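User: quick one, fold this
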Amino acid sequence: MPSLSTMILQVAVILAAARSVGWLFRRLGQPQVIGEMTAGILLGPSFLGWLAPAAAARLFPPDSLGFLAALSQVGLLLYMFLVGIEFDVRQLRGRGHTAVVTSHVSILAPFVLGAALSLYLYDRLSQDSVSLMAFVLFMGSAMSVTAFPVLARILGERGLIRTRLGALAIACAAVNDVTAWSILAIVLAIVRSSAAAHPLWVTLGGSAAYMLVMLFVVRPAARRFAPWYRNRGRLTPDITAAALFLLLLSAWTTEWLGIHALFGAFLAGAVMPKEARLVEDLTDRIEHVTLLLLLPLFFAFTGLQTRIGLLSGAEMWLYFGAIVLIAVAGKFGGSAIAARVTGLSWREAGALGILMNTRGLMELVILSVGFELGVISPTVFTMMVLMALVTTLMTTPMLRLIYPSRLLQPAGSPEDVEKRDFTILIPVSLPASGPRLLDVARMLTPAQRPLRCYALFLEPDTGQTLSAARRHQRVREDTLSPILRAADAEGLAVHPVSFVTTDVGRDIVEVAHAKHANVILMGWHKPIIATSILSGTVREVMRNAGTDVAVYVERGRRPWGRILVPYRGGPHDRYALELARRATQSGAEVTVLHVMAPDADGAEDPVLRDESAALSGGAGLTLKVVHSEDPVGAVIREAQQAYDVTIVGIAAEWGLSPGGVARDERLVREARTSLLVVRSYARASADVAFPDAMGTPAAGAPTT
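Assistant:
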């Protein structure tokens, strides 16, 4: 019996490793669950046991593994219950011939190929106590699974959840998992029949009866959860306890029948009512402790059983390569070819094949069952675990290659952008900021050019794979509804775009390029004091965006009646002046403040000489010249004169340079007006403020 201190230390180390490696994988653009799976392997004999065997033996003594296994099984039961809750049969409706054919081929092809390979591997890698039929059937089933939750998370991150491809992938994965798990249940019933307390006919007949009871008795009864939830307006402890009781009773039944408790846990979740708020609240209540604590224990236990050292010699690595090749050929190849035959383009078919090839955690669950029952040897278990990691790791980069961001189209938007439209991308993070940014967008639009806006909502990735799409949809609606309502009231074309992101700045730049945006208009919501405006996400966007960028700092919701433009003739200053000129179309008055050195002669100033004609000739424009050794102070003093907004181009003279600390941004801190900080892309061929951001424009990069 392990000591309490050993148990606490194990849990703490596992939790820290899972979060750290998971965070690293998120930064690399991979789902966090893959990092957590990797962390489990790193804690096992393949890495920690090899690097520091004494520390590994002290941290994971053999007598503590039983406790770790029990806790991990509890985590798996809760996880499968959550997967069942998220499974909605309505996802299968209306998906047509493609979803039906692709989902079945994506099961049949890897099953047949996996079974054929296992015939070759049986004499070489299987244990004598395992029958050929058990080994072949299990390997075929294990090759057939798709990680439904991880797939849904990847679709959300890539903004594909609302596309035809996303809908097909969800439908195919749902059918795939139900069918694959049903096949596996039959396989396990056959495998366990020799050692089970019941004959095979009792197991199969009892399982069929259990399914009928769950579907036609328990499911109608479970519908009472929905009115119970609505009447109380929240998820009470009684509702949660009743749901958990159903989970445990169903899991015990399938375990007693000789299948496995995990099947009962999944079906208990599947028969729960699918009312959106109930599902979301119940998932939120259970998934945090499951995903953050219990599943990492399962990953660690799996890692302790994974011994990469067993793959010694070229022959073993050749077998592993064959397993990976067959797994990819069956899932990716079978799904892609089936989808292409049923009418999808090669690009969409390839993307669907890549998505269906995602195995992730679901594969580990199946492998743990097979290893627990002794169907697969430690060597085969290790090979299959590594195969699950490889096939899931390849999903995101391959999907980016086959189906890049530029192909994404929001619902309801035309696929061809009209060249005459002036397109502004507005990233929205706070609901209240959307309508005001839309007002600013109207002020910045040139005359005689229709305004097209894309409202972009990016939800930072939290690493959770369950209920992510459902929660993202609710937060998206809450965030974008104000700007969409304001656009409808004013008759403007605003198209919503949203997805989960691991890198906000990068994805803003990618979406701007995909939508041929003329301007990226960002809001600033953090406290100004002790905070640099040109850092973090703003810095990344300004450095990398192949278009103009404007950042709006609002101080008071006043119309733009009087506008101040600090001006010294640089490319960003000229762009600020151009934007101010556009605002005069709405009746705004613009003061151009040119700050000169105290001893400078205005008659010889090249800025005034080159720009005076344009400044004096513009309606609503007033030129004001001041002499000062402190340009920023001169602007701040002028801004006290009842201006509504100051439009300023980034420049060292104004204390606005990329990555500057707060003391460099005196203008931002002390000016009382709202601020629009702008960076011109098309006009700055050699901008000293962003020397590495002004290279050759990307293909299709817009100009103002």
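User: anything notable?
Assistant: The chain has a mean pLDDT of 81.
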